Amino acid sequence: MMFTTEMIQLFAVVLGRDAERVSEMLLSEGVVQFLNIAEIDNEEMANLSSVQSQVSLVDISGLRERIEGLLHTIGIIPKAPKETDLNARAPVAVEKEKKLLDKIDGERESIRERQRSIQQEILKLEDIRRQVDLYGLGLSDVPLKTKHSFLQIQTGRIPLSNTVKFEENLRALPSLGISLGQEDDLAHYLLISMKRDSEQINKILSQSGWTNIELPNELKSVKEDVFKEITAKLGALTEEQKKLERRVSDLIRNQEKQLTDIWVNLRVTELLYKIQTNFKTSSRTVIFTGWLPLSKKDALSEKIQSACGDRCYLEWHNPGGQEIVDDEVPVQFNNPKVLAPFEMLVSNFGIPQYKTIDPTPFVMPLYLAMFGLMFADAGQGLVLVIAGILGMKHFKTIPEKKGYFKLSWLIIWCGVSSIVFGILFGSYFGKAIFEAVWFDFHGIVSGHPEGNSAVKDILDILAITLYFGIAVIFVGLLFNWINLIRTRRWMDLFFDKGGVFGAWIYTGGIYIASYMVDNNYKELPSGFIVFMLAGLPALLLFLKEPYHYLHHKTEKGFNPLMILNFLMQWLVELLEIFTGYLANTLSFMRVAGIGIAHASLMISFYTIAGMTSGIYSVIILVLGNILVICLEGLSAGVQALRLSYYEFFTKFFHGTGKLYTPISLNSD
Fold first, then answer.
1. Would you state the torsion angle of the CA atoms of residues 180, 185, 191, 197, taken in this order, to the nearest 10 degrees?
2. What's domain 52-130+231-276's architecture?
3. Could you give the residue range(s) of every CATH 3.30.70.120 domain in the chain?
4. Bridge partners, 190 (sequence order)
5. Where residue 40 falls among pLDDT bands split at 50, 70, 90?
6. What is the mean pLDDT of residues 577-591?
7. CA distances for 570 relative to 69, 382, 565, angstroms
8. Cis-peptide into 143, omega within 30 deg
9. Is the confidence at residue 554, as pLDDT, over 60?
């Protein structure tokens, strides 16, 4: 768990007739990160050709994405295929599937076109209703006109033969034509339109053979309330929209099983083609290579041999060997699921190099300790736990939100840390309900500490964070030495800023600073001790540049000015070591600073609440806690992450590795 998984490289040759079965087996196992065989620097390999698929990978991916989009519209997320889907796989009939999708899309577009038409009608009617509602127009004295109205109301008649064309023409404008009845071969209409459209309306009326008339008394009572008529029409149109929406959903839902089966088949075929793009073939054989965990070697060998009836040739190459293709070994994290949120924090910074330390197991206690020191409150921590649980349950069933799911778990862990440190410091929603187990943080900040703890003032709190920071830096230096030893970089082990000599100077600086503090800043250790603790390792570091010159000697030869260059580089490196370690150590004081700010804010809200009474006091405390949880919780999380990255990771972590991403049935 401390180191990444040990990897091994496979080089395999199988017969062309077995390639499909081997591809299916490799996909089913899902443990090989394939390499392009073209990267092998070999003349014989250069003469090999790529495996040609029957259908274009682009076409397969495009079809799958189209089906995925259709299923997403009804809230269905297709699940990754299973091993049984490999056995039931049928050849992909691209044209057939395209026709099915085109048919569905055609029907959907027809319905969507009707929906757009209805939506335009709804917008027009709503515009008219707004005017009717604003000016209270009715039909008791139609036509009623006011200088403030934007509406034009007319009654008239047109030949029955022109009614269809008349109504079609009106649809292009925000208007309402209400049929009032028929008389012989004439249709009577009440027409409501916008005054701004008078010119276009008059043209339509002229084309339809419109004749203005006075509204007969017997018809006035038939359509007495225009507002109700418009509302009824809007209701009918809205209901029709809903029915059309249901028709779209039903259209896809009725094909759900068939679409899902096609999607699975396409996905399996797509993944198989992705595997085969890394194959090279001759007239009879297929060659491929890739990385996999060493622990999977024996099982995969048996599977390959079984899939091709022992008609294969397998070679296994360890990292660093001359035979391997691609020196960049992929990295697989080797952590239990409980560390997934902290593995996310590590991978966001970078992927560790192969054979180096994976800091994930150490980030968990480090990050939580810093967060707890900055946000120590049992009550507010419980709120974080509840919020994290709710988030975790919500995102658990959404595969594409895995990052949010891990973040929810991280919030739960941070809440637990806050509860633990809140109990240690005796803080429950900013109040000392129970006696502190360790020391009274809020009491110290307010100037009235309780209990007999050795921590009595702000300086003691700052000292705790300094000791914590020193311990973290030393752990980072130790990890750096382990990485340098595992990668056999012996000179860097001593001459690197995070090497033995750099740590020697840092240790000496801590001792000298502690000695001065113990003697009230009036006395330094003896000159011999100062020289041994800081001077000697500083002088030894001067050998770094001359060594590099001798090790990488060029034809130019030695130049006396190089001595000055060596001296300048030595001084610059010493300056970086002294100032860098000092800044790294003092940076941890921000842990105490944010913790003090957190306590101060809660003290302030209780003081303000004390100036009021009753419900106002409760509201102030509730809002105050919400504000502190949001702002201080975010600040503590960000600062804990910053300290982990820049004061811990930078001592040993080189995030230049490549993540292990095999092609499997669960591949993204």
1. 170
2. Up-down Bundle (1.20)
3. 7-50+277-330
4. 155, 178
5. low
6. 95
7. 61, 52, 8
8. yes
9. no
Domain with CATH 3.30.70.2750 in the chain: 139-224
Separation between Cα atoms, residue 546 and residue 548, nearest integer Å: 5
What are 347-350's contacts with CB under 8 Å, separation 24+?
347/659, 349/645, 349/649, 349/653, 349/655, 350/653, 350/654, 350/655, 350/656, 350/657
Residues 6 or more apart whose Cβ sits within 8 Å of residue 587: 469, 643, 646, 647
Pairing outcome for strands 7-15 and 312-317: antiparallel
pTM to 2 decimal places? 0.79
What's the average model confidence in pLDDT over 114-128? 83
Residue owning tokens 């891990």: 406
Per-residue pLDDT, 521: 86
Q: In the block, which residue shows the tokens 């002088």?
A: 539
Other Cβ atoms closer than 10 A to 549: 14
Q: In Å, how far are 224, 378, 634 from 412, measured between CA atoms?
A: 64, 13, 14
Q: What is the CATH number of domain 7-50+277-330?
A: 3.30.70.120
Q: Which of 105, 22, 59, 20 has its CA nearest to residue 266?
A: 59
Q: Classify domain 139-224 at the CATH topology level.
A: Alpha-Beta Plaits (3.30.70)
Q: Is the pLDDT of residue 224 over 60?
A: no
Candidate ranges 162-171, 205-214, 609-618; pick with highest mean pLDDT: 609-618
SS (H, E, C) 411-440: HHHHHHHHHHHHHHHCCECCECCCCCCCCC
Distance of alpha carbon 272 from alpha carbon 27, whole angstroms:
7
